[in-house]
Specification:
about 325 residues, alpha/beta, Nucleotidyltransferase, domain 5, elongated, DNA recombination, transposase activity, nucleic acid binding, IS30 family transposase
């Protein structure tokens, strides 16, 4: 018998139906199904079909029993039985809270006597009865269909060992060589569209480049980086360091297009590309997260990057990134 209880599935009910047809005792049925006999008694009592008009048609039928069980669970859902709780969850979802944040806050506040788990909220969002509410649009990924649990592959498995930051040469980390960049993606409010901005910073000079993108698809992002960096000499575009976001999974195009290596930070380690993270904070002063990029042109971003590159920096001996960058370009000739 299993130590972990789970609901009877349709295959379990099919087997139960066949065993009952053969008049196998309930205790033996429970043993064969690996269940407690009380589970079998409860299943037969709750999910046996009863027809008062035609008693001869009454009985236990696997598909009917499965439908009866699912309908009962639907009626007994907490968010259906408690309208106030349903309103609370709906309002928080529209405020872009995650299901985990909603469930956790209910416990932390102790206001509601009813507790729910994040899985209950996900099932509510994607249920047939409530799908028309479109609450999935307020989730971080805004998926129309829920992905099967356990199907998401960790990002780390997609990064070859020889591209991980632990394999990156020490002279890149020490900023002793020119032409090594860090890249990141600035994301904006979802309801304003999918447009975003690629930010790239040269590690030694702190020179910043900003590129507007229409979406987060990797190949178009990489193509724009190639287009922007192709005019530079090869010593000015030796490598790029990214995080493990899916938008950078087309990194091989950089090596094919401009001969640049790509390196990837460890999971949840943004500090490993601190130059671009620092630049992002400066950029956010002028382009906050609620900016509508539809009204921002590429030349506006180029002008902003020029403004940042013309500011003296203490780490550069109060020279500007533009001055240091141009000096290294001249040295390479």
């Amino acid at each position: 018998m299993s130590l972990c209880y789970s609901q009877l599935s349709l295959p379990d009910r099919r087997r139960l139906h066949h065993l009952k047809e053969r008049k196998v005792p309930v205790g033996e049925i429970a043993r064969l199904l690996g269940r407690h006999r009380s589970t079998i008694y409860r299943e037969l009592r709750r999910n046996t079909f009863q027809d008062a008009e035609f008693p001869e048609y009454s009985g236990y039928y696997c598909t009917v029993a499965d439908a009866i069980a699912k309908e009962r669970r639907r009626r007994l859902r907490k968010l259906r039985r408690h309208p106030d709780l349903r309103v609370f969850v709906t309002d928080r979802l529209k405020a872009h809270w995650s299901p985990e944040q909603i469930a956790g806050r209910l416990v932390a506040d102790g206001v509601s006597p009813v507790r729910i788990c994040p899985e209950t909220i996900y099932r509510f969002i994607y249920s047939k009865e409530d799908y028309a509410l479109g609450l999935y649009r307020h989730l971080p990924e805004a998926r129309r269909k829920r992905r099967r649990r356990g199907t998401r592959q960790p990002r780390g498995s997609r990064i070859p060992i020889d591209c991980r930051i632990g394999q990156r040469p020490e002279f890149i980390g020490s900023r002793s060589e020119f032409g090594h960049w860090e890249g990141d993606l600035l994301i904006f409010r979802r309801e304003l569209g999918e447009a975003n901005v690629t930010t790239l910073v040269e590690r030694k000079s702190r020179y910043t480049v900003m590129i507007k993108n229409r979406s987060r698809h990797s190949r178009p992002i990489m193509d724009k980086i190639i287009h922007a960096f192709s005019p530079l000499p090869s010593h000015a575009r030796r490598s790029f360091t990214f995080d493990r976001g899916t938008e950078f999974m087309g990194y091989r195009a950089l090596e094919d297009g401009i001969g640049a290596r790509s390196w990837f930070c460890d999971p949840n380690s943004p500090w490993q590309k601190g130059a671009v993270e620092n630049a992002n904070k400066r950029i956010r002063r002028f382009v906050p997260g609620d900016t509508d990029l539809a009204a921002v042109l590429q030349r506006d971003l180029t002008q902003l990057a020029r403004h940042l590159n013309d500011q003296p920096r203490k780490c550069l001996g109060y020279k500007t990134p533009a001055e240091v960058f141009m000096a290294h370009l001249q040295e390479g000739k």
